[in-house]
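Example 9 (inverse folding). The structure is encoded as follows.
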């Protein structure tokens, strides 16, 4: 999921009414704790693909069965969307700071015990609930700080660091201990989650319900689509759902790559797990660098013109990745690692660019609700597309991964034209 928790923070921060930090304690300390929490979140989310093949072999599962792990993620996020507001009202941000890491500890500890696969699925849901509990509220809090853009950028950087480090560490550990002991990686995740629990609890200890305030803006809870449909004019509703469709495919494509690239490299390219996990790490780091570097390019050319260029470039690199065994040594993983990192580099700025354009196309009073809805739809894509590939792999094999990514990129290009130029496509 792969999920990108802070990619839409800057647009959201610009859109929502303030929730000022009225609790005690230094915001710098809180931000440092939140950065560590997001790094842990990145480690959790990014290592699913690394343990996929090992868990499949260990439990004797088919690709479609082990792909159920992807479907567990939105279940937890949907539950978190309903719970976050109530936790804030009863316990303030302190409740969020305790609940999220505690759920991370529970998930990691449960999986580390090597339980039956149905229990692993339940633990995955618990973990994704923890992700959702931490994600939205911390994003909203950071977005309301005095230096919101800098704070949001630091959070995003921390998440990217965790997402890049996780597959490398997991691949190294599993390669050393043997794929039959894949669950030992969750001892590491349990340990870092305990540290997360301690520092988040300490840093937000004064942020109780009273300090949170009686009049809060519900930016941490995505609204139901029915409410959005009931209160939003038709022309704006069309823009929102086209953007949601774009992000469904985009986030799903990202999750496809992070979820299946390791298995693809192992089975099709016959590369050891340690080297295969480098592809996942390279993709994550490529996305992080792309967001930083291409952000300047996007500002110069504008999101409408820049995004199609990024998508076309990503498509070219995907094709080169698919055919790289024909023009490189079959035993070398370096070209594949470089090319998949370039795909990530090009895809990196797409989510925030979509949110920026969405905010530009909508009136201010719709910003928060619209961003919440499209982000949630993106999470649905992060579950459905990797699961769908797992089902397809049962019939035709995992070698279809580059082709499926190619089709998704083509769909994104079409949807972007529809989204970026609504007047030309009769949306308005």
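The amino acid assigned to each position is listed next.
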């Amino acid at each position: 999921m792969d999920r990108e928790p802070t990619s839409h923070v800057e647009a959201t921060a610009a859109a929502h009414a303030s929730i000022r930090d009225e609790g005690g304690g230094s915001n710098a300390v809180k931000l440092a704790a939140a950065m560590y929490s997001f790094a842990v979140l990145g480690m959790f989310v990014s290592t699913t693909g690394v343990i996929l093949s090992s868990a499949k072999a260990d439990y004797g599962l088919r690709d479609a069965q082990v792909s159920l792990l992807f479907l567990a993620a939105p279940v937890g996020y949907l539950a978190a969307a309903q719970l976050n507001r109530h936790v804030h009202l009863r316990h303030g941000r302190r409740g969020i700071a305790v609940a999220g890491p505690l759920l991370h500890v529970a998930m990691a500890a449960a999986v580390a015990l090597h339980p039956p696969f149905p229990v692993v699925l339940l633990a995955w849901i618990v973990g994704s609930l923890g992700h959702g509990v931490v994600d939205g509220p911390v994003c909203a809090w950071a977005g309301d700080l005095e230096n919101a853009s800098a704070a949001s950028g630091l959070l995003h950087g921390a998440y990217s660091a965790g997402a890049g480090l996780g597959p490398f560490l997991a691949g190294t550990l599993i390669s050393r201990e043997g794929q039959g002991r894949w669950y030992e990686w969750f001892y590491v995740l349990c340990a870092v989650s305990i540290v997360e629990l301690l520092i988040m609890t300490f840093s937000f200890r004064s942020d109780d319900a009273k300090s949170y305030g009686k009049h809060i803006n519900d930016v941490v809870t995505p609204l139901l689509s029915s409410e959005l449909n009931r209160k939003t004019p038709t022309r704006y509703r069309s823009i929102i759902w086209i953007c949601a469709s774009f992000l469904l495919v985009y986030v799903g494509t990202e999750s496809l790559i992070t979820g299946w690239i390791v298995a693809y490299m192992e089975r099709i390219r016959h590369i050891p797990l340690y080297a295969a996990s480098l592809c996942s790490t390279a993709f994550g780091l490529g996305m992080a660098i792309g967001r930083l570097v291409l952000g300047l390019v996007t500002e110069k050319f504008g999101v409408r013109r820049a995004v199609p260029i990024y998508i076309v470039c990503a498509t070219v690199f995907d094709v080169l990745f698919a055919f790289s065994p024909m023009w490189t040594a079959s035993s070398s993983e370096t070209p594949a690692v470089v090319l998949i990192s370039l795909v990530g580099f090009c895809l990196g700025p797409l989510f925030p660019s979509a949110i920026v354009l969405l905010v530009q196309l909508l009136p201010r009073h719709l910003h928060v609700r619209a961003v919440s809805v499209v982000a949630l739809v993106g999470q649905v894509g992060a579950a459905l597309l990797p699961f769908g590939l797992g089902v397809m792999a049962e019939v035709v094999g995992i070698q279809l991964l580059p082709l499926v990514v190619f089709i998704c990129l083509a769909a994104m290009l079409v949807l972007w034209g529809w989204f970026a130029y609504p007047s030309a496509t009769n949306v308005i």
